[in-house]
Backbone:
């Protein structure tokens, strides 16, 4: 009898390259071709409709019904020229994945024929039957309506299928009473807040020409690629996205031979295919390479405006899954699919850019532009310092818990890395006796000339910092690979908006009292730097010493999701979000509830899968092998051999019994604890119980199971082993 494991191995060894046919080898020939972008709009909309959409994109102006009808008609003509038959509002509910509900363009007419129709009202607003999306109590059953509403700032696009294409319209998703039920609505609000605050600061102190600003985001996506047949033979990977069992392979990543290594041919085919799909949709994928762990890879696009970057990343994750299937692969986006090798993250490269083309986190060449740089730079540090726990909460998920603080990953302590050069610039700024990093030309009052030309050495990198300055942007590295980055970006941009508002209020007050603008700004920046210095850390963030040092500094190290999430509902957080018009209290409470509930569900599923695997895979394999051993002992005995000839077998037999017993006992405990936790009324307490009572038993069961995997005859083990999952391609 051949088990799934051996069938999977045979399948993988028989796989060959899948030919990919790009529309052209010149990407510019087809880049953005499936997007209703500026060029398509100019082609398919009349002047009035075009201008209205541009105003909506640029200034958030409302679009009236007449214009909406014109836009919808143009969009339909464009889409039908690409054989599109259906349209859907495309949204991001709090399940974590994207949602779509397709409607056909065709509509029957009274005379028994039909026409293709797409009205403005269908473009602007829809009411999907959304009663089973998470809402955290925001919608009562008697008013379960949810609405999707068009987000003109993210262009509509066409999703192609082998047997039909669909027009996708990015939308927000809100309840009947207006509360956000998705990631996009609060994100747009947070972005509005930060853009407004940036323009206020820039135009008041640095450049009157600045009338608009945008937050930029470049998302590096790490992932594992494993053969589909292999994944199908691993119920844990299939159902939870990670391996709950598995003995470490003899070779892992210790040779460091995978990072930037040559890309295996089948994987290369997948990447090429993925890039083609991305280019059609205007996702600017630029980079592809092997990552540190075996079978781990990364892709990264050019940065874009935050809202668009996040839509593109959500789309990218969808596309990865679809394209992988064509190549017989499964993409693992889980933060820690395999114990003992690196996990995956999603580095969020973030900056603020003005409509005059200035990157505000790029050190300038003149004292004036450097003061502007220092203003934004130090305000970021202050914001992170003041809201470190909230940033930690923004990346808290059950899957990211495995990664924070684990092998080669950012710790759960929030700290900021700025490099030695900038550290000395800032130290000089506040020191009574500058060492010279800041060149003073006047000995008396604080002068703008004290701001030096900052030439950054871009090689100054720290791969262990969760929040690192990398020359002209900050890189929030602790975000998980499977996350919707909106959570992190909502928090980061809201705290930045809040911080800039505070800064401006303080500066204005000082200027009003007669202080020179530059002096006022410098004085405030100095005080901010002093106040937030303890969040700066330049050393090895993965070391034990840092954990101790951080504790001494009073920095939080919140290791688990149920605890980390508490930062969302403190009075300070509620005030912060409502002042910046991002979430009201009800929305925050609902979101908190949803996230705690999500934690519970995920751990509950893992517990059930693990119990099932232990009982139906691991123990039977152990007993079969034990039987084989005892048969062997019996026959050696029966031909009159002495105990020494079967002593080794007896040891194995005993060992197996010991492990089987340990597994059996812990599975029983697991089921009991799971039951207990399940019945706790309060969601947060329930999540805590899953976290501290249920989850630790996983490790117990795994220990014995992995030990059994090591000693049991290879033929009898039914689950693909780590070496097969990670090295067979
Ligand atoms: P790294 O700095 O991590 O070695 P890159 O310089 O290629 O690698 O940048 C990584 C990501 O950062 C890319 O997605 C890139 O587009 C993005 N990035 C670069 N500049 C900015 C910026 N000003 N704002 C946001 N993201 C940026
Ligand atoms: Mg990077």
Residues:
């Amino acid at each position: 009898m051949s088990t799934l494991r051996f069938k999977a191995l045979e399948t993988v060894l028989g796989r060959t390259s899948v030919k990919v046919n790009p529309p052209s080898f010149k990407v510019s020939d087809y880049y953005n071709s499936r997007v209703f972008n500026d060029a398509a709009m100019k082609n398919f909309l009349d002047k009035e409709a075009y201008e209205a959409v541009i105003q909506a994109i640029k200034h958030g102006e409302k679009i009236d019904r007449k214009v909406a009808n014109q836009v919808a008609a143009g969009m339909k003509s464009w889409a039908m020229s690409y054989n599109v038959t259906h349209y859907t509002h495309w949204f991001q509910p709090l399940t974590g994945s994207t949602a779509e509900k397709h409607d056909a363009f065709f509509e029957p007419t009274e005379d028994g024929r039909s026409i293709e129709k797409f009205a403005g009202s269908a473009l602007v607003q829809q009411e999907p039957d959304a009663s089973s999306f998470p809402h955290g109590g925001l919608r009562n059953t008697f008013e379960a309506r949810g609405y999707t509403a068009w987000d003109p700032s993210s262009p509509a696009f066409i999703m192609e299928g082998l047997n039909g294409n669909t027009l996708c319209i990015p939308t927000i998703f809100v309840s009947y009473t207006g509360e956000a039920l998705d990631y996009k609505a609060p994100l747009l609000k947070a972005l509005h807040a930060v853009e407004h605050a940036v323009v206020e600061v820039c135009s008041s102190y640095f450049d009157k020409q600045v009338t608009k600003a945008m937050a930029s985001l470049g998302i590096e996506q790490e992932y594992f690629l494993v053969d589909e047949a292999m994944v199908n033979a691993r119920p844990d990977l299939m159902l939870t996205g990670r391996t709950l069992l598995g003995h470490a392979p003899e070779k892992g990543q210790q040779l460091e031979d995978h990072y930037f290594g040559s890309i295996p041919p089948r994987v290369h085919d997948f990447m090429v295919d993925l890039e083609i799909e991305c280019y059609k949709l205007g996702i600017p994928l630029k980079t592809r390479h092997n990552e540190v762990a075996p079978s781990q890879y990364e892709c990264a696009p050019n940065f874009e405006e935050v809202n668009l970057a996040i839509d593109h990343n959500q789309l990218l994750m969808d596309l990865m899954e679809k394209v992988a299937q064509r190549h017989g692969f499964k993409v693992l986006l889980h933060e820690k699919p395999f114990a003992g090798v690196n996990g995956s993250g999603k580095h969020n490269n973030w900056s603020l850019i003005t409509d005059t083309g200035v990157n505000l986190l790029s050190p300038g060449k003149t004292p004036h532009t450097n003061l502007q740089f220092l203003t934004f730079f130090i305000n970021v540090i202050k914001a992170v310092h003041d809201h470190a726990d909230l940033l930690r909460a923004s990346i808290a998920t059950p899957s990211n818990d495995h990664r924070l603080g684990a092998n080669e990953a950012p710790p759960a302590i929030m700290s900021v890395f700025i490099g030695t050069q900038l550290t000395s610039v800032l130290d000089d700024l506040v020191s009574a006796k500058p060492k010279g990093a800041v060149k003073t030309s006047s000995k008396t009052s604080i002068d703008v000339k004290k701001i030096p030309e900052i030439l950054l050495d871009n090689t100054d990198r720290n791969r262990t910092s969760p929040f690192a300055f990398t020359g002209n942007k900050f890189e929030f590295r602790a975000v998980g690979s499977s996350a919707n980055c909106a959570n992190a970006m909502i928090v980061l941009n809201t705290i930045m908006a809040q911080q800039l508002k505070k800064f401006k209020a303080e500066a204005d007050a000082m200027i009003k009292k007669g202080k020179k603008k530059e002096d006022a700004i410098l004085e405030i920046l100095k005080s901010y730097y002093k106040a937030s210095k303890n969040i700066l850390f330049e050393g090895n963030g993965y070391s034990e010493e840092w954990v101790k040092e951080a504790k001494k500094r009073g920095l939080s190290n919140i290791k688990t999701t149920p605890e980390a999430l508490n930062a969302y509902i403190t009075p300070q957080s509620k005030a912060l979000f409502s002042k910046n018009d991002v979430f009201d209290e009800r929305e925050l409470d609902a979101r908190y509830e949803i996230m705690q509930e999500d934690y519970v569900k995920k751990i509950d599923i893992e517990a059930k899968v693990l119990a099932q695997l232990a009982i139906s895979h691991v123990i039977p394999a152990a007993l079969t092998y034990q039987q084989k051993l005892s048969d062997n002992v019996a026959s050696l005995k029966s031909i009159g051999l002495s105990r020494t000839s079967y002593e080794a077998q007896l040891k194995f037999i005993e060992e197996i019994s010991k492990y089987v017993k340990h597994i059996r006992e812990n599975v029983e405990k697991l089921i009991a604890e799971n039951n207990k936790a399940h019945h706790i009324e309060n969601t947060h307490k329930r999540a805590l119980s899953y976290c501290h009572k249920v989850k630790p038993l996983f490790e117990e069961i795994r220990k014995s199971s992995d030990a059994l995997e090591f000693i049991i005859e290879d033929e009898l083990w039914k689950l693909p082993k780590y070496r097969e999952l990670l090295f067979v391609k």
The radius of gyration is 29 Å. The chain has four domains: 22-182, 184-219+345-547, 221-241+253-344, 597-727. The CA atoms of residues 482 and 659 lie 34 Å apart. The first strand starts at residue 84 and ends at 91.
